[in-house]
Amino acid sequence: MTHLQADTALNTDSTNLAVVTTGTNTPTEQAVYNRVATGLGEKIHQAKVMQQAPVDGGQIDPEKLFMPSNRIGLGIAQEYARMGNTPVTAALQRRATEFGVKFEHLGLTVGTVIHNVDLKQTLAPEWVQFIRETLLERKVIFFRDQNLDEDQQVAFGRRFGELDAFPFGKPGENPYVLEIIHGQASPGMENGWHTDVTWMEKPSLGSIAQCVQVPPYGGDTLFSDSHACYLGLPLAMQARLQHLRGINDYGLFLAATGPRALPAELVDEIKQQIPFGVSHPLLRTHPETGKTGLYLHGGFLRHDSLYDGRTNSPLGEAESKGILRELLQQHSRPEYSCRFKWLPGSIAFWDNRAVQHYAASDYYPHERHLRRVTVSGDVPFYDPSRQVSAS
């Protein structure tokens, strides 16, 4: 474009953005572009304002503001709305004030540090109930400076139900404790979004982990809201998942080859005593809150195993894997998550029915040491009649 052409364009009402074609524009050409872009920007803004006009008695319908293919922010908003647009209910906040407890909320819909609680003490029933209600409302809760020994940690876990021992890891001196130790000879491997032990017929209700040793940098754990993840799915996918189930197994723990492989006779013994392959729905109704959550573990779920639970008809490998490729990205959206920085004596108590978690493996070769106990759960189910309204 010549300078004469650019000068002519400046003196016309042309809105042709072709005046800018490369990164080597003259000052005059750039001026043309900026004038045209500014004018169009105002028109586009006004068009969008008209699209967002209030409806239904002056209220904006959020469904009309989000693209059908990108409902991530809407999922968070809908989950927060059914929480009353507040991190915790007024009743729970009143009880916290009465107990002298301070809440530190880490995410809009997920994650709260509970300050001013000493878990070494024998907790009265009303304290146990308060902690449980906070867990149900916030999905994962945290405590600082507890420094429980193994027996104290087990005793705390028992206040919330029976405990599950874990057969595929190093037990502590107390058999209900799982030692999770990573360092120079054992890098962290839990850096994938997951909910625990879906290979069990009755996966654990929740996990209670305490930090024993923290690396100098990194080692955080992230938690993602499975209820908001479900609400943020495209509506067509929500409908597609209503009756889908898949088979989960613990083959991941048996996959080592070479010198690290388990003896064949031990593998046979494991499979004889622990069912290898259990069916769970991809949508799970929380048995206490009634909310629907996206429920899967990409490492335990067989990616070709999806089937219709009404007819037992398999989807086929291609469709099954295609659905899971989309679902396995959902919990990784930052909008759904909170991040917890471990310190020695810190405790995290997460609800496996309501969140997934991700242990960041960003501290190698330093050592990170957690101790975990798990509270027994029940058989996952999906009951759409119990779905809690998101509006």
TrEMBL record:
<keyword id="KW-0479">Metal-binding</keyword>
<protein>
    <submittedName>
        <fullName>TauD/TfdA family dioxygenase</fullName>
    </submittedName>
</protein>
<dbReference type="InterPro" id="IPR003819">
    <property type="entry name" value="TauD/TfdA-like"/>
</dbReference>
<keyword id="KW-0408">Iron</keyword>
<dbReference type="InterPro" id="IPR042098">
    <property type="entry name" value="TauD-like_sf"/>
</dbReference>
<dbReference type="GO" id="GO:0005737">
    <property type="term" value="C:cytoplasm"/>
</dbReference>
<dbReference type="GO" id="GO:0016706">
    <property type="term" value="F:2-oxoglutarate-dependent dioxygenase activity"/>
</dbReference>
<dbReference type="GO" id="GO:0046872">
    <property type="term" value="F:metal ion binding"/>
</dbReference>
<keyword id="KW-0223">Dioxygenase</keyword>
<dbReference type="Pfam" id="PF02668">
    <property type="entry name" value="TauD"/>
</dbReference>
<keyword id="KW-0560">Oxidoreductase</keyword>
<dbReference type="InterPro" id="IPR051323">
    <property type="entry name" value="AtsK-like"/>
</dbReference>
<feature type="domain" description="TauD/TfdA-like">
    <location>
        <begin position="103"/>
        <end position="374"/>
    </location>
</feature>
<comment type="similarity">
    <text>Belongs to the TfdA dioxygenase family.</text>
</comment>
